[in-house]
Amino acid sequence: MTSRLPVRKTYKLFVGGSFVRSESGRYDRIEGEPSAVNIPRGSRKDVRDAVAAARKASGGWAARTAYNRGQILYRFAEALESRRADIGAPADEVGEAIDVLVHYAGWTDKFQPVLGGINPVAAPFLSFSVPEPTGVVGVVAPDEPALLGLVAELAPALAVGNTVVAVLSNGRPLPGLDLGEVLGIADVPGGVVNLLSGRRAELVPALAGHHALNAIVDASADAELGAEIDKLAAESVTRVRHAAPTRSYTDATADPLSRLEALTELKTAWHPVGA
Amino acid sequence: MATQEQRTSITWDYAPAPESPEHVRLRDSYGLFIDGSFVDPGDGTRVASVNPATEEPVAEVAFAGPGDVRRAVQAARAAQAGWAALSGLDRGKYLFRVARLIQERARELAVVESMDGGKPIRESRDVDVPLAAAHFFHYAGWADKVSYAMGGRTVEPLGVAAQIVPWNFPLLMAAWKLAPALAAGNTAVLKPAETTPLTALLLAEILQEADLPPGVVSIIPGDGATGSALVREPDIDKVAFTGSTGVGKDIQAALAGRGIPLTLELGGKSANVVFEDAAIDQAVEGIVNGIFFNQGHVCCAGSRLLIQESVAETVVSKLWSRMERLRVGDPLDTNTDVGAINSREQLHRIEALVASGEEEGAVRRTVSCSLPDRGFWFAPTLFTDVAPAHRIAAEEIFGPVVSVLTFRTQAEAIEKANSTPYGLAAGIWTDKGSKAFEVAAALQAGVVWQNTYNHFDPSAAFGGYKESGFGREGGMSGLRPYLRVTR
After folding, report:
1. Which end of chain A has less Cβ packing within 10 Å, N or C?
2. Does a structural domain hold residue A8?
3. Is A252 near chain B, with CB under 8 Å?
């Protein structure tokens, strides 16, 4: 058989449902299979663009019915399953990431009665509490495992109705960039997930200090960066969850309620009964 | 023929109906409550706690210095394993005892709350104290059921909780903090507010009467420096704070990099939205309750009144006439609607913001009631012609001052209500149920009251969106921040 000249992939950021180069025009050359590749080196402006895209998509995604969000997350799992071989991550890791998506797809219409419900108040009111999405969530993906560690933070954020801006693994950004292509065919509306490659030290402070960000999940396992995130988040009372990198399906599902709750706002409504 | 002037010239005075402080057993001086006993401060000071209605000292109180804070945290650490090792049933029984003792000493607690903080006795008697007891009762019943709050997983307490409460609901906020922490098996160090430490110290006596094991709760009054030292203590596992957004941000930053779970219940500028189809008289009562309850010293106070244009004139005129009938004065008088401003400092803050309202062009109306000669007072005040950019429309005044803005459409009401960095509470007044639910869902606020305002219950979550804080108090959601899943 004669050897066919392969078509190489141009890696791009995934922002607002489009594949884009960094507005800065910068790139990093990293190792890849079969040869080294250029990946976009995102800038602070890319972070701001991504947050704007996520904010724009936020209302519509939150307004989807829980059933619809569940089906889209499941569709995401289906799409990833069919592209297992195309993701630059070990097959076992991709498999566990798919299972995590299936798990959280099922939460979209179940976390509300588990975290909220009717409050038996001692007065004539119908009082109930319902968790709502906090809004735009930043995710700092761990270096390892690059794919599972990212998906385990994406899935709960999306399940409760948030939109996400994720800063990908610094060492291994390719699985995350590949995931953007899966999202592109999985009925996930544009802007709901935004994926940025680049240097964490540059991107994460811009993300954590962004006043339109409602919450940030830091799975970097980098103590110094974590402290910086905390300080920047305090400027606008941004919610922060520090998480060890998720290494397995079991990890990702050991305490799903806490992952889901951290990215919700519980709203309590009081309606008079009678009178 | 009776003219309007003649009618209003008749003064229908209420006879004074003061609640007697005779049965109150206050000591002249209170030490710090550390490790089960009242002790002298090591490196702290002693400060008089002042009655804001008279400017007379009520009792002398010890303020904790950094060394005292350290002692309290050490006591909490030493007691934690034993407290967590008790059966949930037994932890619950201690909390049930506390609830009962609060009920038994309810009258005394209410009187002291009003003397120390200036709130009307009717509120401390009917709201603060009964709700404090109810909170302990609610969480007492959780103590042997905590895993249900975490999806049935195996759980453990976080450890030592550092808790800081404000001066507007001193005893009630102490109950909100302590009850869930203790039910979950944590021990706690509680810092009451600088100007209102007394009911927390009475609560310390109650904890002694309940035979709560020493160190499980320490109560250390102090000012901002004490609170700052507490959250910077190395050996704490949880921080819970209720107070201003500014201090909340400082605490969040102070905890940076320490991995200590935090809950914040901060300020607000809550919108109270009146639609043209509302029952207007009922709405006016709700507006009054929303902003003048506790002199407006309420984080969820309905301080931005949004009225649909078609009824704005009617609502404002009825509101004003209702405001003119509010009785401002002696907090211990059971007829009093609006008591004393909590402190001179707070009075100055209110006066400065009100002055800015006038300078920026809003129209001020202040009730012309007679105010006592001594003490800190501010008469109920209404601003109209307020623009969203005015400081009185954007900043938390934390006083008996309401700013009126108008809107034409539901969409505009929602947009105006949400255009604030805060997100604690909101009110909706409409007779149309479907509209109420739609608007409630669109408001970025942790609590939404429809055709009512300022209701609280231990079973109902309370807490904010955005810069009004994170985490919830009340119900299962108030227990979860004190637990973690073990694996």
Report:
1. N
2. no
3. no
Residue B3 has pLDDT above 50, yes or no: no
Domains of chain B: 29-266+466-485 (3.40.605.10), 271-450 (3.40.309.10)
The answer to whether B467 faces chain A, any CB pair under 8 Å, is: yes
Cβ contact (<8 Å) for B151 and A234? no
Cα–Cα distance for residue pair B338/A56, rounded to 1 Å:
45
pLDDT higher than 70, residue B11: no
Q: Say whether B104 is catalytic.
A: no
In angstroms, the CA B129 to CA B6 distance is 42
Region for residue A72 given its phi and psi (left: phi exceeds 0; alpha: psi -120 to 50; beta: otherwise): alpha
Interface membership of A236 toward B (CB under 8 Å): yes
- Among candidate residues B265, B396, B467, B473, the one labeled active-site is B265
Please report the ipTM that was assigned to this predicted complex. 0.95
CATH number (domain holding residue A180):
3.40.605.10
Q: What is the pLDDT of residue B10?
A: 63
Q: CA neighbours within 13 Å on the CB side: how many for B403?
A: 30
Is B455 in Cβ contact with A121 (below 8 Å)? Answer: yes
Residues A70, A51 contacting (CB under 8 angstroms): no
Domain for residue A5, yes or no?
A: no
Taking residue A182's Cβ as centre, other Cβ atoms within 10 Å add up to: 19
* B152 to chain A: closest CA residue: A255
| Domain count within chain A | 1
CB contact under 8 A, B450 and A272: yes
For an interface test with A, the pick among B147, B465, B485 (most A C-beta atoms closer than 10 Å) comes out as: B465
Residue span of the structural domain in which A120 resides = 13-272
Total length of chain B:
487
Query: What pLDDT, in 10s, does the model give residues B116-140?
Result: 999 999 999 999 999 999 999 999 9
Domain assignment of residue A125, yes or no: yes
- In the residue annotation, B300 being an active-site residue is answered as no
Contacts of A214 in chain B (CB under 8 A): 466
- Is A228 a domain residue? yes
Angstrom distance (rounded) from CA A86 to CA A89:
9
| Cβ-based burial of B277 (10 A; exposed 0-12, middle 13-18, buried ≥19) | middle
